[in-house]
Amino acid sequence: MNSNRSIKSNTSIGGRTSPSFPISKSDALTNRSSSPSSLLPNNRSLLFRQQDREKNEYPTKTLSKEDDAKFHKAVFSRCADTPKGSIITNREKFVQALNYVGYDLPRTAIDQIWSDQDEEITLKIFQQILTEEKPIDERALEEAFEILYSKDRKHDLSAIDFDKFRTDLLQKGDRFTEDEFQKIRYLLGTEHGKVDVKKLIKAIGENKTSCRQKVLKEQEENIERPTQRHTSPKPNNKNYNNCNVRVMIDSSSKKPFNPPRISSLKMKGAFFCEFSDSPTDVVYFSIGYSFELKKPGSISISLEPIISRYHKDSSFKNLDVRILVFEKLSRSIERRLLHMSSARSDTKTYLQVDELPKGLYEIIPITFGGVLRARSQEMNARLPIKKLRELKKGNNFTMSKDYRDALEYTFDLFDFDDNKQLDRQEYNLWTIRTTGDEITDEDWSSIQASVGLDVDENISKDKFLKLNDFEVQDQDTTEQDLWTGLKSIGFNSGLELDMMCPFNLTIYNNQSGLTLKPTSFVDLAEIKKLLVKFLQKKAKTITLEDPSIHCFHYQDDCGSILFVENKSSSNARLSIDVKNSANASLNLSTDARKPTVVSVRRDNNQIIWFAHKLDNQREMELDAIVQIE
């Protein structure tokens, strides 16, 4: 699904990589054991039956217990989510900590440990687990793969079919994501769809060593330069910096939105979410739309989420959405936020501005995870994998019906103006989304030479499918290459859309010649900063006992936004304990047993929650305790 163009980047859009360990071509494999424990037979002694063999391909590196303890403590501190790094209360962080130190326990074992410890792992318990369990070293990995493929008399560990390799690991319960499989293929430079397992094992060992060195080096640097802590005196009462935030929003008293009887422009779009290491590391993208007013005038904008046959979750109809209007500053790439929507009518969000001066403007719809969320890695492992191509006679590949249908939907999605053609800008946005690269003049000329262009040099649906069919028929293309594009659109391996929600955007204005153009993808993390600045004067200040931490709460008919500004000289951690919520979508956990902990960097601001009223005709309620730890 990459227009027969090579994928130049093995990371997601914008070159995002792991926040913990920067990825380069030398160490892009995730910092964990590659082979799942379930790949190994129950009798662990079988894995070490040849440790005394003469050929020593994987020389043992002797590390002192003191070095091990130092490394394990450093990793635990990285993943701990409480003050002082003393406890891990997030299951995924616990699994991540085990992976970083080279342990990959079966899911059932992790479930048991997590339950036995009441969902809290201390450093002592973590060290005890590492003592009782055995890490998976390079020799164990090789022997595990030998056991897996020993039934095949013709097996050759230096040339395992990549698709078979991937399917076998998923069936054995490995938690690799699709992106991680792609990274393996990219790093190992697999030719003709074959995997050199020995090369993979060696790369994993080298990466684990590199990872260990980085963690210990960073730990030493942190010790040499301790961070300055708050010096504010703490009162003796236990409710220090404790603040109750109660939100009550009545059912909407506003009249339903009646579109003005004037000219309108309709445009399609979508919200996308993605993550690098885990679903907690999620980023949201939207699309910006530009327009120009030749003279002052009023404007109305409405947005309505669309549920397609690929969406299994009907809650997307009540997506937490705000419409933002920015002024585009002349001779600058800067934006200035002017207006934010604060009204809804059924499932539509709308914004009405009585007077806008003439000038250049940009519309950016936003959402922050109250409804649209990253899928869990458990969900990835659970879903059956749909086939995207089929083998015909003569070893030729053809597109599967499922893949063709998904591509047709994708074409319609990026046909923003719904004219049944993709112009260069629409095609460019699709290419950025699926490969991370923009279309160059050379690329566009190549497309023209391959399939020809239609009216106004646009691409029709038939020619879009033909371009993708070239990739399907290419013998060097693997099934994973095709999945890369679909995953970036928001499809899971069952061909369900769970990480993308499309919408219809309509703008009403009576000026002739008005045009609305999709311009670029917008990382909504950057928009948060502008939104906080915009809302500070409109929000109610919540007083905390630490004067260097400023807390603000904004509320309107659509929902509630809570944000903080850290003016202190050190980072701060806030605990948000949601005690009760009704008719509200929230981008935080509502589990009263385990408060959400949010880190706010020094001299920075951050949105804590983005709460949204689900049913506009019912009352919304939200009750939470905010505390500085």
Features:
27 strands, disordered N terminus, 5-stranded antiparallel beta sheet, Immunoglobulin-like, 629 residues, alpha+beta, Recoverin, domain 1, 29% helix, 5 domains
Structure notes:
The two termini are 47 Å apart. This protein folds into five domains: 65-132, Orthogonal Bundle (Recoverin, domain 1); 157-221, no CATH class; 243-253 and 530-628, Immunoglobulin-like; 264-376 and 505-524, Sandwich (Jelly Rolls); 383-497, Orthogonal Bundle (Recoverin, domain 1). The longest helix has 28 residues, at 197-224. It is α+β, with helices and mostly antiparallel strands and 629 residues long. Residues 3-61 and 224-240 have low confidence and may be disordered. Helix 1 packs antiparallel against helix 2 (91-100), helix 1 (65-79) crosses helix 8 and helix 5 (138-149) runs antiparallel to helix 8 (197-224). Strands 6, 7, 8, 9, 10, 11, 12, 13, 18 and 19 form a ten-stranded antiparallel β-sheet that branches. It has a five-stranded antiparallel β-sheet with strand order 20-21-22-26-24, covered by helices on one side. Strands 5-27-23-25 form a four-stranded antiparallel β-sheet, with no helix packed on it. It is built from 15 helices and 27 strands. Residues 1-43, 217-241 are annotated as: Disordered. It is found in: Membrane. It comes from Rotaria magnacalcarata.
